[in-house]
Write a sequence for this structure.
């Protein structure tokens, strides 16, 4: 269970860093992504682990970053960042 919390915290830490780099408040990111403020706060604090792929896509789009921007969190274990759904390639990579 500790590894799960560690990876969840890593994703939340990366989300926070990306948000702050763009000068966004949690409220602004919530409005842009269509998510609830409390949900974002839980992700950033590591209380909510492994967000759904749709959530990752919404957050990336709201901040103007590729979904790969969240992959920095998987360097230690290789499984923190959500996998691309096999039948749904990431946005911007469709043929």
């Amino acid at each position: 269970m500790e590894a799960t919390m560690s990876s969840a915290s890593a994703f939340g830490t990366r989300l926070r860093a990306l948000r702050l780099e763009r000068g966004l408040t949690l409220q602004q990111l919530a409005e842009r992504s269509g998510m609830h403020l409390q949900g974002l706060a839980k992700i950033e604090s590591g209380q909510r682990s492994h967000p759904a792929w749709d959530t990752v896509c919404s957050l990336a789009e709201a901040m103007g970053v590729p979904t790969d921007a969240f992959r920095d969190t998987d360097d230690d274990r290789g499984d923190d960042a959500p996998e691309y759904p096999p039948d749904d390639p990431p946005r911007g990579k469709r043929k």
About this structure: The chain has one domain: 2-74.
